[in-house]
Each structure stands twice: as C-alpha cells, then as structure tokens.
Amino acid sequence: MTSHLRVENLSKSFGSSRVLREVSFSVQPGRFLVLLGPSGSGKTTLLRCLAGIERADAGSIHLGDRLLAHGRTHLAPDRRDLAMVFQDYALWPHMSASANVGYALRRRRLAEREAHTRVDAVLDRVGLREHAAQYPHELSGGQQQRVALARALVAEPGLLLFDEPLSNLDADLRERLRVEISTLTRESGATVVYITHDQSEAFALADEIGVLEGGRLVQLGSPEDLYLRPSSPFVAQFTGLAGELTGHAAAASTDQGVSVRTGAGVVLAGSGDAVTAGTALRLLIRPAAVTLVDATELAAEAATGSLTGTVVDTAYRGRGYDHVLELPGGTQLTGVFDRLAHRRGTRVHVHLDPEGCFAFPEPHPSPLSAPAQSPEPVSTRI
Amino acid sequence: MVGTTTVPRPRALSGAGAALRRSGGRGLPALARSLPWLVFGTVLLLPVAGFLLVAVTPRTFSQGDSWFSLDAFRQAFTGWTAHALLDTCLVGVGAAGLATAIATALAWLTERTTVAGRGLWRLLLWALLLAPSYLESLGWTWLVEPQGVLSRMLGHDPAALHGLVFGPLGVIWVLASRGVPFAYLAISALVRGMGREFEDAARTHGASRLAALRLVLPILAPGLWAGFAIVFAESISDYGVAATLAAQANFPLATGAMEQSISTFPAQFPLASAMGWLLIGLVALALLAQRRSLRGRSFAVLSGRTRPAVRIRLSPVGQLLALTGIAVFFAVALGVPAFGAGAASLLPSAGKVNAAGLGLDNFRHVLHSSELLGALGYSARLAAITACAALVFGAVAGRALARRGSGRAGRLLDLLLLAAVALPSVLLASGYIFTYNLPIASRLGLNLYGTTTLLVLGYLAGALPSAARLLSGSLGQVSDSLLWAARAHGRSAVRAWTGAVLPLVAGSLVWTWLIAFCATLLELPVSQLLAPPGNEPLSVAITHQLQGYDIGAGAAMTVLVIAGVLALIATALGTLRLLLPAAHRLEAVA
Known about the structure:
heterodimer; A: alpha+beta; Rossmann fold; 2 domains; six-stranded mixed beta sheet; five-stranded antiparallel beta sheet; 21 strands; 21% helix; 34% strand; B: mainly alpha; MetI-like fold; 29 helices; 74% helix
C-alpha cells in the first residue's frame, strides 16, 4: 500500500556534531524523492532516521496515518512497513538469493506456497529466476544489487528507501540498473526516498529532488526547478556548472535578468532577487548554456552574452567534443560541448544563454556596491 | 583537428626497479630458493614422518617382525589406550563446545556492547593464552588435592570439589578455559568486522531484534567453526593437563598414553606411533568438518563501505549481569588456579593453615635451591636461543608465506608449517627420540640423541610455525615499494630496511619473540621427553617438585617465573614504546 511520507523539523546530532537541522518535507504517495547532497550533508543519517535505524533527537516522521517517530515515540524498523536497499547490498551471505528475498516476506505471514510464488515472480521480474539457488558470492555485483532490489520489492512495502544503491557499480551497469529501479519502483507504486551524491542519477530518477547542505534541506523541487532556478550558489554548483565568474551588476535587475560586468565581458543572467546597480555578484554558468561560435562567424565580439576565450583542452566524447576554455582573467569553463572539435590554443567566441546563467549577490559586498542580500532558499512543493 | 601524436615516456624508474628486483634474487630458480626449507623440513619434520612409519612397518626400524602390519592400531583400539582415545574425543568435543560458547559470548560483549573494562578483559585473555595448561592444572591441584590449600584451610578434605576437579569435568574445564582465547581470537575479529548492515537489513525487512540476532549469528559460522576446530585440536594434543590433572584423576588421555608407551621399558614405539596417527586423524577430521561446513558459501562480511557496528548500550542491570558473567569466568579460569599457586607458595609444606603460618620460606628455599635455579637458568637460556632462532627463521618464512602465491617454494613452505602446527608436541618429541636414537642417525653423524641441541630443535619445531604465521601478517602488509623507495632515494639495503620497514614491523617482532620465549620457558612435553641427562628444564623441575610433594617450592617457583615473565613483557613493550613510538602506535592500531 502506498503511503504519504511526512517529515517535520527532524534534527539529529552525534555528540557535538549536528548532522540534521530541522529538516521538513513531504512526499506524496507513489512519488519518487531523491535526496541529493555531498558527503557529510546528512543524507544517509536522514535515510536511517526514516528507516528507524537511527533515532532522531527532535521532529516527527509520519507514514500515512501512522506516527513513526516523535518525541519519545520511536517505532522499531521492523514495524514501519518499509524496505531498504543498501549501498553494499547487505545480502546475508549464508542465504541463497531466494532465501534472501523470501526473508522479507516473513512479516506478511503468507502461506509457504504463496510466498514461493511471490519470490519466484519478483526474481523473474529482476531477471534472476535461474539464479534463485545461488549464494550472494556466486553472483556478480549487478546481480547482487538486483537481489537486494527484489528483496525490497517483494513484500510490497509502503515506503522504499535506497541508500546510494548504484555507487558500487560500473558506469554501464549503473545505467541499466537505474532504469530497472525507476521502472520497478513505479510499477510497485511505493513511495520512494533515494539518496545519492550523483546529480545526473538524481535528475534521471526523481519526481522531486531535495538538496541537502550541512544537514539542512536547502531546496526541494522538481528536477527542472532545480536546474533552471537553483536557490543558492551551492545548489547550482552541486547540480552542475561549467564555471563561475565574479563581477558587478551593470544596472539594476529587470524581469529579463541582470547584466553582469565581469572581467571577461558583460553577461546577461537570471537572478532570483532584485539587485541594484553596482552590486557584487557571483555568476554561475551551466555547461548547457555555453555555445561555441567560430570567430569567423561572429564579429560582434563585444555583444552582451558573448565572450572570447581560448581552448585549453579538448576531449572526444563520442557524440562530439567536450572543451575546456580559458576566459580573459584566467577563469576556466569546463564541459563545453560542441559537435566539432576546436584545437587546443584556438581563440573562440563563447555565447552564453541567460537561462543557464545565474547571478547571486556576493556574501561579502565590496565597498563599491550596495549591501547584498543572501538568496532565500526556494521551496517548490509538489 | 586535435593532435594525436603520442610520445613514449622515459622509463628510467621502471628500469631501476627491474635492476633492484634482480638484485633481490628473484632470478634464483624455485628449487634453490626452497632448499633451506627442504633442509628445515628434513631436520625438523622428517623424524616425525619416520616415527609415524613405525606403526605400519615396524621391521623397517627394527621394532618388530613384520614389514607391514596394523597390529599397533589394533592394540591402540583395545584396553586402556582405547579408553584414553575415547576420553580424548569426549574431552576434545566438550572443551571445544564450551570454549566456543564462552568465547562467542565474550566476543559479543567486548565488541558489540558497552560492557565496562573491555581492555582489562582482553588483557586477561592474553594472560590465559600465555599460561601453559599444566600451570592451570597445577593451580587447581594445589587447591583441592587431599593435602592442598583448601583442605588445610577448611580442616577437612573438600571431597565433592575434589571429585569434580579430578575427573572429566575438571579436565574439560581446564582445557576449555585454555581454549577460550583461541576461539575468541577467531570469533571476535569477525564480530568486530561484520559491521551492522546485516542487522540493519534484517530490521528494515521485518525482523525483530531477536530475529535479527538469529539471522546474524550464522554469519559468524566461519569464526565459530574455526574456534571449535582450533580448540578441539589444541585440547586433544595437549599434554600438560594429561600429565598433571588427568594423570592424578586416573583419567587417561591419548597424549599421556603416548608418553607412557615411550617411557615404559621396553618402549612401545609402534603403539605410540599408532596413537600419533590417530591424533593426527582427529585433528584432520576437525579441520575437514570445518571445511565441509562452509563449503559452497562465502562469508565475506567486510567491504570498503562497511559501517562500524554501534555498541549496544547496556542498561545498569545488563551491565551488572555481563560483568558478573565475565568476572566469574576469569575468576574460575585464572583467579582460582592463581590463588591456588599463590597460597601454596606462601604456606608451609604441611600442617594446618593460619595467618602466622604464611611466609616467604618457600621463596627463600627456591632462591637458595641450586636445583630450581639451575633449571630456571637452563630453560631461560634455551628459551632465549629458541626465541631468537624462531624470530629469524620465522621472519624469513613469514615473508615467503606472505608471497606464497608466487610459486611452488612458498606452497611447500606453507605445507611444512601447517604440518608442524597440526602435530601434537608429544608426537614431535616422540619422533625425535625415536629417529635420532636409530643407528642410522649415528652412522650419518647426527649424534643428537640426548643432547641439548635436540631439545632446542624440538622447541624450535614447536615455536617456528606460530612465529612464521604471526610475522607473515605484518610482513605481508609491508609493501615492497616502501623498501624500493628508500633504496631509490639512496639508502643502502640495510639502512633502507631499518629505516623504512623495521618501524612498521618492530612491534610484531617483539611480540613474536616474547611469545616464543614465554612458551618455551614453561614448555612441558618436549622438555619432559627430550631433556638430556643431567639437565632439567624448568617445567620438569616444577612437576618433579609436585611429585616429590614439595608443593610449596614448586608453587613458589611457578609464581616467581610468572612474575618474571610479566616483568619481562612489560619491560620489552615499554622499551619498544620508548625507542620506537611509531611501532607502538601501529601495534595499537592493529
């Protein structure tokens, strides 16, 4: 049965170290939430609090109508009607694949025949029916993770938790398993919370993404929201940047954005907040916002949104080439894609799409500028 | 277009590495490299092989009329030797089961809970590991025998306790308590390294706390089976208890029976040899059972992301119960025999016990007894020689073992050392007596029978396998690149080794030397069987004191030696800490 997950003001400390700081969010039944954050951001602790493995210091967790944790109430993991896929699979080594999967059915107290049927069906679904009698060490890494996935799915829990399940796999396998996780979990209809530090994995899987920074949930929204409207430089950086420039607002911001005068030229960028002329700004640029234009094709060197740079490195990526560019002032833009290769040392024009450029006021304003405001975290509830 | 020309990089470093490797002697053929180990095997282990052949072909060694016969085995399976074999099996299984159960509980408490005094309990386990089994037997004997400490304190013979200790239960208990450290070492590493994912996975998939524990315990199977097999093998091979507690209890054991077969006149070598076969067979059976129980399954529990297990916080009542259980175990395993030895050493040899009777007379007697002091000096000298030899050969063998994947020589060495580990000491000593007493040994110029050299060889054969195993761990972890880096930066071979490798392995070297020294100083079976006429090793002198009913002197000598050994260990480790702080830190980490 799918359930609505609600987390309110969840906090957790280990000794003097605060790992979670009043985290609140909710996930609608059957939705797939990815919690994205770097190491130490608190995502694993948050997931373990949801599982009941860790006890939160404050706040509450509800799953559907049931209170899982609040104050002194702490429902044991086995009574939470959830399942979890662990990063290193945590398959019990002395049990075969089918026994591992079948173990999760015990709480359902099914007849042995029905349990067998369900185990066989779920192993079949993950493509491992012929490996049912094998022990974990006889399976490859991908097969082990499929067993772990089958174990999580078999009892049809209301909440499915994933602890970076793909991080131990190679790139090809990771992509195939990602598709399977996406398909199977949606088929099951369970509410899913999935943690990862990989932004591409997060964007590919999620209905919603929550970004964690230092134990705080700094932004929650759809993948598109996060990509197009990052609430802070941290979110923008963590969801993929080509590079960063600093400068000042050439004029006050308008509905179209703000013109930023940088060492490399003038760039038009989006801005969440109104900024006044002269405000010191950080300009963050998405790789997809950068287009290379051959010098012969574009004469308007000084045009807004167009800079010049030098190709520092070129890497063949199959569909085309990734370039590293150096702009005047020494700033580098990485991951700049073009179907054609540009030789190292070539001078190129760089066109910047304002939709992929974000201006944030500098936290410490320079004496020339007006006091800058910290951007407010964007919270997009779905 | 992008330039794609590739330029070969200079290979100076790899060239230097190759030169260094060549200077390391890797070019030697495998046979030449294995020659020292063939010599080692011939001198130390071949005599045992010869001795074992007597059981099936007595005429070859002038021990009977048949070229091939199984009479010795038939004889072993009848009468008192059959009784001894059956007792040995029962004692082995009982001690192994008990030790494994206690060790599992101890490992769980010290590695998974917040039980107080964890460091102290581990230290006491080491003390239990280092003390020879016959000392614990003697402690109990001094305490409960008819004219023992308790009898004299209470004024009457504690018959019930006497009956309990001098019987199968007493023997099983002493062997089990001696086996607990071995089983603990096998199990605790697994409990510590298991992480908590398996429990977490069980809990999140519906298992209660108890169900999760039931699920996780079988994952410890390798440790449990290893612990059981080690304690079983140690128990059935043990001679110290067979020669003391079991002998006094008229409870014959196989090792005691073997020794008696050789000590009687005429010596019954074929019978002793047949019993040797049977002992080896039992050890092999235990190891085979361990292998079969784990066949087809992997129990790898460590991964790069293993999350350290969080200790269970014990409630005050839980803490009290756990501490009581642990304290009772150590009190009975260590405290009671230590009290027996301590009390016996402070009491006069006869008469009723009272406070005024306590004194240091026994210690004065020992310190003025040329017999006991001579035995101490003799054993200390031999123990030091054995420990040094075991350290040098053990380091070389350990390094070869750590690289055993490299070829046949390593595998041969591994096999030799494994065989030496599995051999009961009493069988080893019997083999030496038999083989070096053969006329052919004399004709070959090996006039070792009845010499101190043979005794040292016997000690070395016992100490070397464990020394090599201990050192193979730490030496195997030292990457060659550390040494090559020092050499490549201008250090000579010796300075490179002392500067780059020694600090990393010094702790292990010191521990290996100490373990070999302590084990040899108080070693009983080899001493008993191979001591040359006119020279009495320490353990033999102490047991002679007991047999001569000078209990006080024997106990005082034991107390003095144990105190001396503890002082030596403290001094050695303190010096190590002072001179090589890095080595100490690394040991602490290990």
